[in-house]
Design goal:
4-stranded parallel beta sheet; Rossmann fold; 10 strands; 2 domains; globular; alpha/beta; homodimer; 6-stranded mixed beta sheet
Chain lengths: ~300, ~300
């Protein structure tokens, strides 16, 4: 059993349920070089998280009590959506921090939803308590193998779509998406991890030599604000990660605005974080280096259709 | 000289300047069948209009006085963008109806802008007076051959991207986009024209047997509110159009909301008008008929980044 064959298998397993997301090559955002972009924010429920959710549910015996998830919003929406699509009960614990738009997104799926005061870790505690009490299956947002394998199908799909880049920039929260990408690529392309300065669990872990707790805040915290990097991600990053860079909230907000103004791609701050590394110069490609940016989340607050 | 070879030539001519826009296949929006979609609203300045603008400027000797355009917004933005990219002066007359977001979009290109009270026809008059006075080159929004040929490159590109549909639904204002599409396809696929009930210049012309003036109003009027269908479009429609259908503002608003909620594609009402024909049942595909929707404009009001 290898990561790559697991991801190939997962890609076939979930193919009837997930959206193949489009790619484009564009030169905008004040950059002097073209960038390959994958619009993974067009995935069901507005982020890559649907991939991990479907892979988990389709490769397990789901108990009658259904599934339970803790989520800053996007993972909860994905689990709720996937559970509904596959006929399972879903219970989602969302930190207050997630905001009204993401909470409404989860509500629309029909899941049973509890809003927990505070940040992600509090929601995770509540979800663990629910799991112990009911026997519902816990779906971790990022640090579980079926989740990571599911997220890895995004990069596998991009490869199949003809990705040419030498280097791929990926935003990191708990590390599920980048872990899946590293697991799929196995060093075949350079992967650059991009984190907000104020929510940088991977960066801190790499510096400390082991996952450590970090404080989380900032405009992307409701999606990227994991207090501790996932151990699966950390292990893969130690072997395969090309570089870890940080961006500040101003750079993230500028990238979010540029994606809309230059290319009419509306994302949440987390979805613009990888691009922010190029626009701010936090990552500077070498002269002939071809770069790609994975746009991963599109659930902004306020939602443009909130009344 | 034929339409198809002209469009092929134009596609090569403008290729360094326009965005190849992505496509996807999705089943959403409450529909029971998949739909192919081209995200042409990701084009420069947020609509297909950049194609016609670049084709016109690159296939003419532009006078020193530069170019002038009258536009409900999207054409003006495209002409201003293309002129700036190619080093020409640009004067744009915009009807007040265009709204603050589109006016700001044009301002960002650096064009000389005049807002004209009332609707599109008033802006066109002002542009014609400016042309007569200065010798600037008039770029018509839809009823000129280089404009139509440029817009036709959108469908040519989609064909090259592997479009499979039997039937393509296209929103119609003055008819530039659908004219270019009909000119390219030459009957190879069924083309369905979709217009708002309250801005239906093509529908009225087909009923009358000749282009006639219509009143324009409704939520898509700032992009689709042409008072009279272009003669080039009318001639092509008489030969090649498969069907003409109408949708009401409620259907357009529902489609606009569904594109965002189901697929995170944010468009203006005009950009959702073609999809509205499927969602409302104004166009009902036969059981095995494969359908495609051209999403053509993404400049909503209010702009999500308006402060």
């Amino acid at each position: 059993m290898t990561w790559t064959s697991d991801i190939e298998t997962a890609r076939a397993r979930i193919s009837a349920h997930v959206q193949v997301t489009p790619t484009l090559i564009t030169q905008d955002f004040g950059l002097t070089y073209p960038v390959e972009i994958k619009l993974e924010q067009l995935q069901h429920t507005g982020s890559f998280k649907a991939r991990g959710a479907f892979n988990t549910l389709l490769s397990a015996d789901v108990p009658k009590a259904g599934v339970v998830a803790a989520s800053g919003g996007n993972h909860g929406a994905a689990v709720a959506y996937a559970a509904q699509a596959l006929g399972h009960k879903a219970k989602v614990f969302v930190p207050e921090l997630a905001g009204a738009s993401k909470i409404a997104l989860i509500e629309r799926t029909g899941a049973d939803l509890t809003v927990v005061p505070g940040e992600y870790a509090n929601a995770l505690q509540a979800a663990q308590a629910y799991e112990a009490k009911t026997g519902a299956m816990q779906i971790h947002a990022y640090d579980a193998k079926p989740t990571v394998i599911g997220q890895g199908t995004c990069m596998a799909e991009w490869d199949a779509q003809g990705l040419a880049a030498d280097t791929v920039l990926i935003a990191v929260g708990g590390g599920g998406l980048i872990a899946g990408s590293l697991a799929w690529l196995q060093g075949a392309r350079k992967v650059v991890a991009v984190e907000p300065e104020t929510s940088c669990a991977l960066h801190a872990a790499l510096q400390a030599g082991t996952p450590v707790d970090v404080d989380v805040s900032g405009i992307a915290a409701n999606a990227l604000g994991a207090r501790r990097i996932g151990s699966i991600c950390f292990d893969l990053a130690q072997t395969h990660l090309g570089q870890s860079v940080l961006v500040n909230d101003h750079a993230i907000a500028s990238a979010q605005r540029a994606l809309w103004q230059d290319r009419r791609v509306l994302v949440e701050p987390a979805g613009a974080t990888a691009l922010a590394a190029l626009m701010s110069g936090a990552y500077q490609p070498a002269p002939q280096e071809r770069v790609a940016v994975l746009v991963c989340g599109a659930n902004p607050a306020p939602d443009p259709f909130d009344t």
